[in-house]
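Notes from hallway chat w/ T.B., transcribed later so I don't forget. T.B. wanted the structure written out for a chain they're using in a teaching module, and asked if we could keep both sequence and structure tokens in one place. Agreed to drop them here.
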Amino acid sequence: MDITYFEIPVTIKQLISAEQAYHYRVVPVEIQGEDLILKSDYEDVEELQQELTIVLDRDIKIESVATKALDSCLSVNFRKVSTKQTENFSFQEDFLKKLITSAQDYGSSDIHIEPLEKEARIRFRLDGKLKTQFTIKKEEYPQLVNQIKIQSGLDIAQKRISQDGRISFRLDQYDFDIRVSSMPTLHGEKMVLRLLSRNTSSIALDDLGFTQNELKEYREAIKNSQGIILISGPTGSGKTTTLYGTLKELNKETSNILTIEDPIEYTLEGINQVQLKEDIGFNFPKALRTFLRQDPDIIMVGEIRDNDTASMAIKAALTGHLVLSTIHTNSAWGTVSRLIDMEVPSYLLASTLCISIAQRLVRKLCLHCKEKKVVDSSDFPMDFEIPEDLKETYKAKGCNHCYHTGFTGRKAIYELLPITKQLEKEIKQNSLEIDQYIRTHDILTLKDNALRLVQEGVTSVSEIYPILISN
């Protein structure tokens, strides 16, 4: 069996931990009868077989394999972690604890726990993509769900409606919150756990992905003492991280900063953060009304979802406060039309909006294995006008450094639209077509910045394809 790029089935892979795989230089490949078959480049196979039989408490058979092939198979199937990994992931009482610490070690943002017809699978979201990490027996699944429900304060007897809860996780060096969501499906309740880090040390505007000119424009906008700053984009595009980076920069002893969030994803020292509680009627509009009686300088609203929240945000900006928030639109200018659709008077919007920003996240190509290729029109959307100076691009390949995904990490791209006097006039007149304005003022759109990253070799055409086809 050539195991160079062999992807081990999850049911086999979870029989050993990543730490064991790298420590003993073994990969499990199959089960023959009662024997677990391992591949290894270890010289003394008999000694290793005896030790692993004790460690794994099962019959082991080890077959030799070339070092290069083993290294590739290890990187494809097991991620190295910075802390000691858990033992075997068979179901047990502390399975949930081990599951969460494993997800944190891997750098996962979400854990998906899903019942299927004959088993249940557990997937981690890594760099924006879901990957199956473990499977558990269907009969053991309800016990895991109940563990999660008890720790997050959910009703274990209620299985027919969706529920939301929260877990405060503290263990050794770990200290973070987890947002829990349950939802009834055909084969049982699906659970999604979002890991919310309390560490903001790595969040800084300089490191998020702004170009130098964009960062300069954005910093000018957030110096305003009043008005609205809006960041748009789909779920998972990094909007909240940009907001937290902004608040971190604005956080001064002389300012009273209030936030209303759902959920509170990071803890910022010196800022008054409030958790939304819809079940008792404490929603965004009600929180904003309370905030205006708290002598605020800066207000952050997690998301503008409806006309009541939009109207209260406008009112806060009109009465001398700087308001930061997010909204779901496809472009920076699309935010304007969205707010007008929410029945925000165009003359009030024109006088309060300071800057509108759209953003996306794209995966970065692995520096160790990316491959150069000649531009091929078939890689781009139909009728897309490929820039004349774009002759070569890079594509993902995969190596041991990137676990054979071809990508390592993500980077934000932005579209900034400062609201000038001319744009104020356009907004007041409900003129929602500003393509000519964008061209004449050299404003870089999301497509422009996405193509720039392709030209610089940071990402691939396939990664920015959804941005190129968007309106």
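Follow-up for T.B.: DSSP finds 16 helices and 18 strands in the chain. Might be a good example for the class.
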